[in-house]
Amino acid sequence: MLQDLEQLIELQGLDAEIAVLDGAIATIPDQIRMMEQQLVQAKAVLDAATAEVEKLQKLRRQKERELDEAGRELKKRQGRLYEIKTNQEYSATLKEVDGLKQKISTLEEEILVSLDDIDRVMKIRGQEDEKVRVTQAEFLKNKQQRQDELQKLQGRLSILRKTRESRSRNVEASLLQLYLRLLKSRDGLAVANATSRSCEGCHVTITPQLYNEIRRNEEIRTCEGCGRILYWKG
Ligand SMILES: [Zn+2]
To answer: Which residues touch 22 (CB under 8 Å, ≥6 apart)?
Structure first.
């Protein structure tokens, strides 16, 4: 085989692998960002549950204060009942006592309901807390894996780039220019296999005469459809 053609085929192989590695490397930061986003979302749900617990506890404390106050008021009124002189004042105070008893009973009921609510929301918060812990642990583990992978890919990429550079030096300058131009304009494929009687790049059928020339792999021939450099794999 023509040596230049051999070098170009090898270059094409290196460039194809470099393109795959570049693609894989480019996706890793996005993958990490997506995982991080999941963690942020889990934390937001936990924060909302925590806020709900705090709101309910504040409400419960407020009702307990109201209950204490009503209890004190009740005692005051009940004590006063024995000192009252007139019937009118007596029945008015008695009415107040009944009103306070009713209020206390309502508050006690509300506090019980709010304790149930707090239990329920605290259970939810516990579950969300667990979710955050699991998500965080997974995130850290997966992030480390991705970063290790990134390092590995970058290591391989740097070897490929060096190899590519030294191989490029062996190719005649104008041919290398043609190759590089095609690589850029033909979607990363400059050297195409023509073994199946058609161009691997554009699938155009190759004329019998050109096909015979390509089969010899003894000169640089290009595709009539796309201009890619053709070779025969055998
Ligand atoms: Zn073609």
So the answer is: 157
